[in-house]
Amino acid sequence: MIRKVLLWSIGILLVSCGGNDDPSPAPEGANLVFPEENSECTTGVSVNETLSQVTFQWMASSNTDSYTLSVVNLDTNVPQTISTAATSANLSIAKGTPFSWSVTSISSDSDQTAVSETWLFYNAGAETSYAPFPAQLVNPISGSTVQKDLANEVLLEWQGADVDGDIATFEVFFSEDNPPTTSMGTLGPGTMEFSVSVTSDTVYYWSVLTTDAEGNSSNSGVFDFKVF
Predict the structure, then answer these.
(1) Cross-referenced InterPro entries, in alphabetical order (predicted)?
(2) Which end of the chain has fewer CB atoms within 10 angstroms, the N or the C?
(3) For the chain, domain boundaries
(4) What is the CATH code for 32-123?
């Protein structure tokens, strides 16, 4: 009888002392605040003729200990990053230049991270008319392998934006050459997709040139994909 009681007591202790094996909650993505999406940032502090210091701000996210701010110069595709436990950070960035920015949420208790939306903005300079943001190529993802449809076509998709709101055309370039040299024609500002004819086992390159009503233009850069 005593032995049974001892075994029962040990079992209770093992259950009560057992650890919680549930994984720590993953961090959530932060909501961006400033610079606002598709805006002209005019509140930076001038550093010199070419640079101004901008304060990036976002909302605190749950289950997060620190953040990594990533700001990409869309003219050069060169990123700047900074890590902080705060919900704001200062960076000196080029004037009169388009940028994208996002924030990664990090938890010391989790291997997972969470990335915010990506917003675009122009850092104000001496310009009174801004070129459109370079089109953001969405699909197919660069470096991917895709399946053509029954018509032997693949749908190209992108996103376009402009501070002045006066995008006039998108011109699609598509070919087997890098960079692509064949213009597939121009599309109106409300059209951000285009179907192209493809052949299996072939790598293709594509880009989009965005032009506004003032004649300012920007190039998306080149994406590539392979067809099954």
Answers:
(1) Ig-like_fold (IPR013783)
(2) N
(3) 32-123, 136-227
(4) 2.60.40.10
Tokens (6 digits) for 140: 């197919």
Identity of the amino acid at 122: Y
Q: Going along the chain, which residue ranges are E strands? A: 32-34, 39-41, 45-46, 51-58, 66-73, 78-84, 88-94, 97-106, 113-115, 119-123, 136-139, 144-146, 153-159, 167-175, 183-187, 193-197, 203-212, 217-219, 223-227
CATH of domain 136-227: 2.60.40.10
Residues composing the chain: 228
The whole-number mean pLDDT for each consecutive block of 10 residues of the chain, a chain of 228 residues, reads 51 51 88 96 91 97 97 95 98 96 97 97 84 96 97 98 95 98 96 98 98 95 97
Q: What number of other Cβ atoms are within 10 A of residue 224's Cβ? A: 16
CA 99 to chain centre: 11
Other residues' Cβ atoms within 10 Å of the Cβ of residue 3: 7
Give the separation between CA 171 and CA 156, rounded to whole angstroms: 12
Using alpha carbons, list the distances in angstroms from residue 117 to 21, 36, 56, 72, 221.
Answer: 32, 12, 14, 14, 21
The pLDDT of residue 126: 77
Strand-strand pairing, 136-139 and 217-219:
unpaired
122: buried, middle or exposed (CB in 10 Å: 19+, 13-18, 0-12)?
Answer: buried
Q: Which residues pair with 56 in a beta bridge?
A: 89
**Structure confidence at residue 5 (pLDDT):** 46
